[in-house]
Amino acid sequence: MAKAAQTAIKPTRSEDYPEWYQQVIKAADLAENSPVRGCMVIKPWGYSLWENMQRALDDMFKATGHSNAYFPLLIPMSYLEKEAEHVEGFAKECAVVTHHRLEPDPNGGLRPAGKLEEPLIIRPTSETIIGATYAKWVQSYRDLPILINQWANVMRWEMRTRMFLRTAEFLWQEGHTVHATSQEAIEETERMVNVYADFAENWMAMPVIIGSKTPAERFPGAIETLSIEAMMQDRKALQAGTSHFLGQNFSKAQEIVFQAENGEREFAWTTSWGVSTRLVGALIMTHSDDDGFVLPPRLAPTQIVILPIYRDQSQRAEVIEYVESLRKELSEQTYAGSSVRIEIDDRDMRGGEKKWYHVKRGVPIRVEVGPKDIEKNAVFVGRRDQAKSFGISRSEFVTSIDKILTEMQQSLFDRALELREKNTVEITNEKDFRDFFTPKNEDQPEVHGGFANCFFSSEEQLDSLLKELKVTIRCIPRDADEQTGTCFLTGEKTTQKAIFAKAY
Amino acid sequence: MAKAAQTAIKPTRSEDYPEWYQQVIKAADLAENSPVRGCMVIKPWGYSLWENMQRALDDMFKATGHSNAYFPLLIPMSYLEKEAEHVEGFAKECAVVTHHRLEPDPNGGLRPAGKLEEPLIIRPTSETIIGATYAKWVQSYRDLPILINQWANVMRWEMRTRMFLRTAEFLWQEGHTVHATSQEAIEETERMVNVYADFAENWMAMPVIIGSKTPAERFPGAIETLSIEAMMQDRKALQAGTSHFLGQNFSKAQEIVFQAENGEREFAWTTSWGVSTRLVGALIMTHSDDDGFVLPPRLAPTQIVILPIYRDQSQRAEVIEYVESLRKELSEQTYAGSSVRIEIDDRDMRGGEKKWYHVKRGVPIRVEVGPKDIEKNAVFVGRRDQAKSFGISRSEFVTSIDKILTEMQQSLFDRALELREKNTVEITNEKDFRDFFTPKNEDQPEVHGGFANCFFSSEEQLDSLLKELKVTIRCIPRDADEQTGTCFLTGEKTTQKAIFAKAY
Ligand SMILES: [Zn+2]
Ligand SMILES: [Zn+2]
Fold this sequence. Notes:
Translation Initiation Factor IF3; 27 strands; homodimer; eleven-stranded mixed sheet; alpha+beta; BirA Bifunctional Protein, domain 2; binds zinc ion; Rossmann fold
């Protein structure tokens, strides 16, 4: 029997994808479960990635005219009573603050005291509290539009959690805008889903499909929800960002009313849009391999790590001097409009161990430099997206660094797109649909399925089949041509066509 | 009787300082009270100032070797039971989460359901939850030091709140570090209070005194608390940042234990340090005047606002073209290492109203440009720190912008330092102490007092006098020479000397 190749992550993706995901997070030192149920600790390497995501997104939000602001963490319970559909969607599982003090209990411990007159809940999303504030700010059409974003923590009491993908507390941004007309609000909703798609594709190297959600999958209270959907390596879909056109639903519940130019009092039109630390989970599952995390260069906290190699202190002096000058030269290069981010790792550690440390963390480029390389004025380069390392002259490496990183970023995108295209099918009948979404081994399901493009006539009719197979309608792609076909379940004529997939 | 000068803010500082503070916040559009008790909404102009503060501080933290990470919002109640002194200081007034669900109540409203087995509290500060995590991370001296910072929201159930200065929820950063030796931890504590002083003086233009807190004023559980103290314009002190040497108190409570190089198991040495949105309150009270907010140029979201002036559309085209080219030219200038931040305000609004809008918001430089200025290739400049405006040639203005902003930043600092020096006294007896801290009009206290440098022999002996006068010991200044004097209260010989003041 041929010996299996050694991998840094065990199990591999094909052996046990969910467990592989957890092991990549651990090996890359991204996060860990906290002692508080369902909440995670985001460790420095994971958090610096999130900081890079935040910075890029924040620049894009500001370039599209938005400002940041901050609204309260706690929401009075009565606010949630106002918008029935929204409560149904969010209020069920949330953290409820009922007391404002701790006092000693008779057993030497503590107990809650100071009961609040009205319970407060930790925001699961901020439409209600922000809407109540906007109602005070908006008087006239001259006060519109309001274009505000908030970076914040939110909390949803999820029963089953998975790091980055679904946690009780998570970090996100939520944009909340108010407009004088339906048309403007719709344009805003589309503008922001486009910003998300731009970020996903050009920063995360993650191809996405923009589409609209069917009624059952919409944000509670929204007229329309647009989303970006990506295919993970296990062929499941991940909703990576949403942008909601809320119509006048929230403005009516919260009385966001303005005097129009014609003097009439009108309810405003609102939107909301958000992405979260879930994007880190998406990034992990899009690019990582059986050796660990793979970072797209544009988001990598460290783009190049230099590993000095030497036998003794006299060699060390020479090598360190050389790598310091190399670092300086490299940091003067730019990639994607910023200085290249370089780290020298001179920790006292075995060479192999040190190399794998950075492989598992996903650093795009490793550069080894020892006395022999210095003699030849060359460096030994390992690319995280390729198995083989190669020698290259120092000057060629320095001048081509922008090109190499650009090529890596593109190759990650291409590889992810290829995976998606290879696993996207057109399905026209129930049998094929069942086959596509049923693993051969139910006990330990193998990677299977993908995106199925199907005509369908009614969401309700599909309900039981989708529940049975654990499949959802991901979206009606925006760019699809108007076509007529037959429903894969009923054979009825229809023009509705959507992407079906299992999803995170 | 001479007519009082018109001011944009009513009341003035001398008429009613606390109310003036609220009115400046309102006029500058910085924040407002939210519908949630004790919590504020930070509006875009106020938040962009906080973003600039964050960016500068974050760069300083990273330059001193720290990384950011994120820890849970909620802390199990049992964690607070471990460190007795800390609970005493923080657990008393905090938001307690007792349920994780809302369910319909019989009256058509909602009510808490799903009672938690163990109550959770919203972090008032994170020593306990972060310490519990560090206990898992630290095994050996090789794992040390841990140098981590967190940007987060925290909550303390304050009874009397005031925007930015004391709110139930506030934004802050909290550094939490772990070291192998006492010496290293003490150095870290000092390093970070120096970073805060550097930021306060060189970014906020706010002179501060670095000192150590007396035992009664220390952070609950700390061995030593260092702080920076600033004098506000009403001569009260404001503690603007603190850095705590926690010794082994927290590591013992949370079992942060490591194997030392000699093989022995030892408790680690920890520190914590933080500044908050309180700094915005400090900034307002340090520089603002009776016309509103005054921003130090280095932190101003907009450093220059250009106000185009024209009578009709044909003039408008010419003026707008001119100011756009002026903006471009100015944005190529740098000030304090960054591009100059410029805004053109072409809103349809009366000229006077528009000018005062920016005065009240504290924009450092206003530039008016109309057809006559364009003819002369000149601009009309108003500096926020001076009453008079002046004409200047365009080219001279552009080339001197760095010089002007630098001068403004310095002049704000100098003015604040002068105020502090003028209102700092040496006091050697009780009568002078009482006089200094007693307003002439008790019903509506005038601005009075300041910083009193006094020898004292025992904090306990002073307790009732300080309570009576509402005075506190601010700090024992770090740079004070070792001196001997007599206690202002008892006449006893002593070497202890501190700054006494009323404080926020
Ligand atoms: Zn709703
Ligand atoms: Zn304590």
